[in-house]
Amino acid sequence: MLNAVQMVPATGRMRPGSRPGPHPERVSVRRMQPDDYPMVAERVDAWSGGRFLGVALPRSFLQHFADTSLLLLEDTQPVGVLVGFRSQTSAEIAYIHYVSISRACRRRGLGRTLFSHFFDLAGSMGCTEVHSIASPVSSSLIAFHRQIGFEVVDGGGFAHGIAVFADYAGPGQHRVLFRKRLAAVPTPTLAG
Ligand SMILES: CC(C)(COP(=O)(O)OP(=O)(O)OC[C@H]1O[C@@H](n2cnc3c(N)ncnc32)[C@H](O)[C@@H]1OP(=O)(O)O)[C@@H](O)C(=O)NCCC(=O)NCCS
User: Fold this and answer.
1) What local confidence, expressed as pLDDT, does residue 25 receive?
2) Higher pLDDT, 139 or 2
């Protein structure tokens, strides 16, 4: 079971655009439930300025990947969603399919917190790496992934100044592929 998030207090100089983080006791993360779908679709639509398309996040994802999808709340209000799952083809990989943070709450460390919980969840399932993708024009999503420790995988192509997997999502739909290796969970040493 996921408990309340312990936010790490901001230290050092704040980067341009970043904002003070929320009070740790006001933020929590929980697993999704299939019944969360209407609320999630409504929120994500609002956070993306009415650009949410169900094809990007169909209800089936919450019906079948609720256990590995996370909802971030601040003062009991949903402010972030992450939909992910463990690969059935490569069990060592966990994949983040969708992420969205409330537009009003960005640059406060919430995305980092949400991903951190997913890394823990993936590690607890035995996964050793987390994969994700982004459009090469999504500069903020690319900057975010890099900042939290993802590497860009060489997909063989190049577009908009970054390595891509050409035609990944169909003709002309190039994607940046990200990978983050998870820290190995220490094996307990036996005494005696
Ligand atoms: C990308 C996203 C998840 C980041 O969430 P967030 O809560 O704002 O991220 P954080 O505050 O945890 O940022 C962590 C670091 O990532 C980097 N980062 C985040 N947003 C950035 C931006 N817009 N520009 C540059 N760097 C950014 C920064 O280095 C930041 O640290 P800092 O604020 O101390 O400088 C959020 O902007 C979002 O939901 N965007 C829309 C994503 C999307 O298109 N989803 C649909 C397809 S999956």
Assistant:
1) 81
2) 139
pLDDT given for residue 137 in this prediction: 97
- What's the number of domains the chain is made of? 2
- Give the pTM: 0.90
Q: Flag whether pLDDT at 138 surpasses 60.
A: yes
The residues lining ligand 1, judged by C-beta closer than 6 Å to any ligand atom, are 15, 18, 98-101, 106-112, 138, 140-141, 143-144, 147
How far, in Å, is the centroid of ligand 1 from the Cα of 141?
6
Give the CA angle between residues 2, 129, 125 to the nearest 5°.
40
What DSSP designation does 81 have?
E
Which CA distances in Å does 41 have to 74, 90, 114, 144? 18, 29, 18, 23
Residues 96 and 2 occupy one common structural domain: yes
Please give the Cα distance from 26 to 75 (Å, whole number): 5
Q: Which domain holds residue 169?
A: 128-185
Do 107 and 133 share a structural domain? no
Give yes or no: residues 36 and 97 share one domain: yes
Residue 192: inside a domain, yes or no?
Answer: no
Contact 62, 88 (CB under 8 A): no
Mean pLDDT of 32-55: 91
Question: Mean per-residue pLDDT for 109-134?
Answer: 98
Same domain, 105 and 153: no
Instruction: Say how many Å lie between the CA of residue 167 and the centre of ligand 1.
Output: 25
Domain boundary among 111, 144, 169: 111
Retrieve residue 116's tokens.
């951190």
